[in-house]
């Protein structure tokens, strides 16, 4: 009997078992995370109003969003500028570089306008989850959460409690943190924060507060 060969076989079997165990742990962690996301979303959905008017508004917004994609399809391939990220048929820019110091809501908006865009309008679940994942990936753990937010194109400056996007549409589904928005000290502008639960990501804040920001822009036609 070749003892060395038997030992080698046992070692190989052991290594294989360890690999399968580690893969099972990874799969379990992924499934637990998915279950947590589902639970958070269910909790979020339970907190939403069930009246048909809001449901109708949401459907109309989705129809408008789908219609907005038609010109892009007809015109062919489009692209984003360098440094911008293409998601949900829109180009987004996250001001995460240390080259850009935090700015007030209006200053952040002016930056976006200067680039040919505006502050981000996060009017769908898909956009919100994608952006939440992006800002969480770029989160600086050393920065206090109060200073880790990103301005978005949402405010209630015209009428307190009536939140509107910069395109004039009224907010129908918000992803506010518990107790928000609370207008504590004249907070009329909205920001999204890198939180573990993406359905509790938004806070209202004073518009002169300084934060990072997220721009959006329509993709540009490719140069032929």
From TrEMBL:
Q: Which UniProt keywords apply?
A: Disulfide bond, Lectin
**InterPro entries in the record:** C-type_lectin-like, C-type_lectin-like/link_sf, C-type_lectin/snaclec_domain, C-type_lectin_CS, CD209-like_CTLD, CTDL_fold
The GO terms describing molecular function are: carbohydrate binding
Query: Is NADP included in the keywords of this UniProt record?
Result: no
Q: Which Pfam families match?
A: Lectin_C
Annotated C-type lectin domain ranges read 87-216
Superkingdom is Eukaryota
Q: In its UniProt entry, what is this protein called?
A: C-type lectin domain-containing protein
Instruction: Tell me what organism the protein belongs to.
Output: Dissostichus mawsoni (Antarctic cod)
């Amino acid at each position: 009997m070749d003892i060395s060969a038997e030992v080698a076989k046992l070692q190989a079997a052991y290594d294989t078992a360890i690999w399968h165990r580690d893969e099972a742990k990874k799969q379990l962690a992924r499934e637990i995370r998915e279950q947590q996301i589902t639970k958070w979303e269910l909790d979020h959905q339970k907190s939403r109003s069930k009246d048909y008017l809001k449901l109708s508004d949401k459907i109309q917004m989705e129809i408008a969003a789908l219609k907005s994609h038609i010109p892009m399809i007809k015109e062919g391939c489009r692209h984003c500028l360098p440094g911008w990220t293409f998601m949900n048929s829109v180009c987004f820019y996250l001001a995460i570089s240390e080259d850009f110091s935090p700015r007030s809501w209006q200053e952040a908006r002016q930056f976006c306008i200067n680039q040919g865009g505006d502050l981000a309008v996060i009017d769908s679940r898909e956009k919100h989850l994608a952006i939440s994942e992006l800002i969480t990936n770029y989160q600086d753990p050393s920065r206090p959460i109060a200073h880790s937010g990103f301005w978005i194109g949402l405010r209630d400056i015209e009428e307190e409690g009536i939140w509107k996007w910069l395109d004039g549409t009224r907010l129908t589904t918000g992803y506010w943190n518990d107790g928000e928005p609370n207008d504590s000290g004249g907070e009329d502008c909205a920001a999204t924060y890198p939180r573990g639960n993406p359905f509790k990501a938004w806070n209202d804040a004073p518009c002169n507060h300084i934060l990072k920001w997220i721009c959006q822009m329509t993709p540009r036609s490719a140069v032929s």
